[in-house]
Write a structure and sequence with these properties.
single chain, mainly beta, 4-stranded antiparallel sheet, globular
């Protein structure tokens, strides 16, 4: 499995970005997809996750109401739309894949595959 995250960049506080993660190598619809982030000097933390058909979605409290997650199984891609960005959202964002998961999970060690990360910087 290969995951390629893109869409990061520099944005002012209050702005928006959409991250994409392209999946290849296996059947995309067999995987729960998650987004995580890691700020300098901090541990990697859960942001959002979506089940294979979008029927289950979960968000970290810190992004609930501002971020949305979606997937297009025909394009093998998962998206993270980030609105009302804050400086504290600055981090490297990673997408991850969890094979045949029954639920959406928040734990880093639940996920089997990881992308390389894309940097999001929010200026105040």
């Amino acid at each position: 499995v290969q995951l390629q995250a893109s869409g990061g960049g520099l944005v002012q506080a209050g702005g928006s970005l959409r991250l994409s993660c392209a999946f290849s190598g296996r059947t995309f619809s067999n995987y729960v997809m998650g987004w995580f982030r890691q700020a300098p000097g901090k541990e990697r933390e859960f942001v959002a996750a979506i089940s294979w058909n979008g029927g289950r979605i979960d968000f970290a409290d810190s992004v609930k109401g501002r971020f949305t997650i979606s997937r297009d199984n025909a394009k093998n891609t998962v998206y993270l739309r980030m609105n009302s960005l804050k400086p504290e959202d600055t981090a490297v964002y990673y997408c991850a894949a969890d094979y045949r998961a029954r639920y959406v999970y928040r734990q880093v060690n639940e996920y089997d595959y990881w992308g390389q990360g894309t940097l999001v910087t929010v200026s105040s």
